[in-house]
Amino acid sequence: MKRKIRRYAAGLFVMFLVLFIPLFARAASPSVSVSAKVNHTESSRFLKKLNDLRRKKGLSEVQMDKSLQRAAEIRAAELTVRYSHERPGGGMPGTLSEKIGAENIAVGQNSAGAVFTAWVNSPMHYQNMTRANMKSAGICCLEYRGRMYWVNLFGTDTARSVKLAGRRTKTFKIKIAEKYLSASNITLGNVGTMSSKEKKTLKISIRCAGDEPAGILPNSFFTFKSSNRRVLKVNQKGVVTSLREGKARITVQSKKYKKLKKTFWLTVKDNSRVNYIDYSDD
After folding, report:
1. pLDDT of residue 275
2. Strands ordered across the beta sheet of 199-201
3. How are strands ordered across the β-sheet holding 261-269?
4. Backbone angles phi, psi at 138, to 5 degrees
5. CA 122 to CA 104: how far, in whole Å?
6. Who contacts 219 (Cβ-Cβ below 8 Å, separation ≥6)?
7. How far apart are the C-alpha atoms of 88 and 129, rounded to whole Å?
8. What is the pLDDT of residue 265?
9. Are the C-beta atoms of residues 243 and 196 closer than 8 Å to each other?
10. 237: which residues sit within 8 A by CB, 6+ positions away?
C-alpha cells in the first residue's frame, strides 16, 4: 500500500514538472546596453526655467525627486532605442515608477532653453508643465551619439530631494520587447578593417523604430557560425578572426528566438583587411 502511495505521489510530482515548470521557465527579455552622458548642468538650467514659469503662473515650484530623477534617466536612455512614450520593453512610463504622473519627451534640442521653448509652444507639453497639483520632478538631458534626449517627469508626491551637477557617463540596460526581435531590425555595426589574424568582437545592434540609434544586444544572446573557417573563424563569444584572403558568411542566430537569424557577408582582401560587404536574411 505504501509503495502504491509513493508511486502515486511520484507520478503527481512528475506531472507537475511537465505541466507547470515551463510556465516559470520563460527566458527574460533581452536587453541592450546604452552608454551615454547625463548632463545634469543642462537639466538644472531647465528646472530653473520651469520653476520661473510656474511662479509667473502663480503655481508652486516643483522640486527634484530622487526616484523620479532615476526614472527620467532610464527613460532618456530608452528613447535612444525607441523614441516613444511606450517603453521599448513594453508598457507606459508608469510601469517604471508609480510616482510618475506625466511625461514630456524631446530629442534634438541642443540646450535647456531650446527644449523649454519647444515645450512651451506645444499645448500638451505646456499643460504638463503648468499642472497645479505637481510637486516633484525628474529631469534628464542625455547626450548620445551626437544627439540630446530630454525627459521631464512630474509627480504629485512631496519630493525626496537630490542634488545634481556636472556631466557623467552612465551605462543603462534597456529591455527589448519580443515584437521588435526581427532580422530586419538588427545590424552588424563595427566591422571595418582588420589586420591578418587580428581578432575583433562583433557587435550586434537593434533598432526598435525609425532611424533612432541602435542599442547593442549581448553576444550571449546569439550563436555564431562562419561559412568558411579557412577565411574567417568566429567563436561563440562573437570573436571573429581573419585568416586569409577570401569571402565568408557570418550567420548570427538568437538562441531562444530561432526566427531571429541574419547572415552577414565579410571579405578579406590582400590577406590584411576584412570589410563588411553586405548582408541578407537567408
Report:
1. 55
2. 199-201, 239-242, 232-234
3. 222-226, 246-254, 261-269, 273-280
4. -130, 130
5. 10
6. 201, 202, 204, 237, 238
7. 25
8. 83
9. yes
10. 201, 219, 220
Query: What does the mean pLDDT of the chain come to?
Result: 83
Residue by residue, DSSP assigns the chain as -HHHHHHHHHHHHHHHHHHHHHHH-PPPPPEEEEEEEEEHHHHHHHHHHHHHHHHHTT-PPPEEBHHHHHHHHHHHHHHTT--SSS-TTSS-GGGT-TT--EEEEEES--SHHHHHHHHHTSHHHHHHHT-TT--EEEEEEEEETTEEEEEEEEESSPP-B----SEEEEEEEEE--GGG--GGGEEE-------TT-EEE--EEE--STTPPPEEEPGGGEEEEES-TTTEEE-TT-EEEE-SSEEEEEEEEESS-TT-EEEEEEEEETTTEEEEEEEE--
Q: Identity (one letter) of the amino acid at 247?
A: K
Instruction: Give whole-number Cα distances, 71 to 2, 137, 139, 143, 164, in Å.
Output: 58, 10, 9, 16, 14
In 3D, which of 143, 162, 165 has the Cα closest to residue 79? 143
Q: Which residue has the cell 502663480?
A: 58
Q: How many Cβ atoms sit within 10 Å of the Cβ of residue 215? A: 26
Supply 199's cell numbers: 581578432
Task: Write down the pTM of the prediction.
Answer: 0.74
pLDDT tens track for 12-49: 444 444 444 443 334 456 788 889 999 999 999 999 99
The residues near 152 (Cβ < 8 Å, ≥ 6 apart) are 46, 50, 72, 103, 104, 105, 119, 128, 129, 137, 138, 139
- Identify the structural domains of the chain with CATH numbers, from first to last: 31-175 (3.40.33.10), 179-269 (2.60.40.1080)
